[in-house]
Design goal:
Largest sheet: none
Radius of gyration: 12 Å
Helix content: 55-70%
Number of helices: 5
Shape: globular
Structural class: mainly alpha
Distance between the termini: 31 Å
Strand content: under 5%
Order of helices and strands: HHHHH
Length: 79
């Protein structure tokens, strides 16, 4: 069972569309791994710093930057 804030990363395409208002963006987000989706939402939507995301997710800042970079590249390809 998912509790707290993590529920938003396991949503359906329709839910993602309702969150973003853009079907293309929703489809693109659905192609990301759950961890990439977490980083994208926390960084771009909620404006968390890389340091804060790393602390929250129990990862290194370097790994968070790499996940963000790979997510952006993947989203460019899938759009």
């Amino acid at each position: 069972m998912r509790i707290g804030w993590e529920w938003m990363f396991f949503r359906s395409l329709l839910d993602m569309y309702q969150l973003t208002g853009d079907i293309g963006l929703a489809k693109s987000l659905q192609t990301l791994t759950v961890m990439q989706r977490k980083v994208v939402f926390l960084f771009y939507v909620h404006r968390f710093s890389v340091k804060d995301i790393a602390t929250l997710l129990g990862s290194s800042e370097r790994n968070i930057r790499k996940l963000r970079e790979r997510a952006r590249e993947h989203m460019k390809i899938s759009c």
